[in-house]
């Protein structure tokens, strides 16, 4: 794919004897939203976790093939620096049990930023970019666990944005949220792609159709079909993808 931010070439992943991903080839476009869909256990989360080497921490996990970030192999990048460039937001909000401010400031501080003024600016910018600033600006020193579930998830997005990533990975970020909070996250994702490359795993087909530019359908560890979202949802070329979109399985 021309303009690919991430490229996967023959990526295979095993958990022990389980072959979780099988020969994945795809390009993830810069400044676009790419959705990964498919039934539970098909390999979506394994794929997204491969993009910043989170699977490295899983005992017995083996990855083969090549993943490129801006043309450079991610295996040659220090894992700590890679995860700064390729941030992650998980399914369940996981704010640190510290203040809202410190949740956002901790990452930049860990990367060497000490100036209080600089940290203040990063915290405000990140919370604004996560559509959360107006709701929390008067209680930044309150414990983050006091926020609602939807607010906690947006705080986790702000925390990821604070270290200045180029790519934002989102693994089912709205599955635990109510419809109102889900709508806010979807609106946020649509805006984030102007600054970031976004990859989102979702079980919600309507969500994928609403917010993504490209969609990949994964089944039994194989990338069955990958194309522009409009093509996937309206004119899929593989019968398995057509059946999944139509709700005939999964």
Please explain how this structure is put together:
- The structure is a single chain.
- The chain is α/β, with parallel strands linked by helices.
- The protein has one domain: Rossmann fold, CATH 3.40.50.
- It contains 10 helices and 10 strands.
- It has helices at about 45-50, 80-85, 100-110, 115-130, 135, 150-160, 180-190, 205-210, 230-235, 240-245, and strands spanning about 5-15, 20-30, 35, 60-70, 70-75, 85-90, 165-170, 195-200, 215-220, 220-230.
- The protein has a 6-stranded mixed sheet, with helices on both faces. Strands 2-1-4-5 form a 4-stranded antiparallel sheet, with helices on one face.
- α3 (about 100-110) runs parallel beside α6, α4 packs across α6 and α6 (about 150-160) runs parallel beside α7.
- It is globular.
- The two termini are about 30 Å apart.
- The mean pLDDT is about 95.
Structural key phrases:
250 residues; alpha/beta; Rossmann fold; 6-stranded mixed sheet; 4-stranded antiparallel sheet; 10 helices
């Amino acid at each position: 794919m021309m303009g690919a931010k991430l490229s996967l070439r023959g990526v295979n992943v095993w958990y022990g004897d389980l072959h979780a991903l099988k020969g994945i080839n795809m390009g993830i476009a810069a400044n676009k939203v790419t959705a990964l869909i498919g039934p539970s256990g098909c390999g979506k989360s394994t794929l997204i976790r491969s993009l910043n080497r989170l699977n490295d921490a899983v005992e017995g996990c083996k990855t083969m093939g090549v993943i490129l970030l801006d043309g450079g192999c991610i295996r040659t990048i220090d894992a700590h620096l890679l995860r700064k460039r390729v941030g992650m937001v998980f399914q369940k909000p996981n704010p640190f049990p510290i203040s809202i401010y410190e949740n956002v400031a901790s990452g930049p501080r860990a990367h060497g930023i000490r100036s209080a003024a600089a940290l203040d600016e990063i915290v405000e910018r990140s919370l604004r970019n996560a559509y959360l600033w107006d709701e929390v600006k008067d209680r930044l020193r309150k414990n983050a666990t006091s926020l609602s579930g939807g607010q906690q998830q947006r705080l986790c997005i702000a925390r990821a944005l604070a270290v200045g990533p180029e790519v934002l990975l989102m693994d089912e970020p709205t599955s635990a949220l109510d419809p109102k909070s889900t709508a806010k996250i979807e609106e946020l994702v649509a805006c984030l792609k102007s600054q970031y490359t976004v990859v989102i795993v979702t079980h919600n087909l309507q969500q994928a159709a609403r917010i993504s530019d490209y969609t990949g359908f994964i089944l039994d560890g194989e990338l069955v079909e990958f194309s522009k979202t409009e093509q996937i949802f309206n004119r899929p070329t593989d019968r398995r993808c057509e059946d999944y979109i139509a709700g005939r399985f999964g």
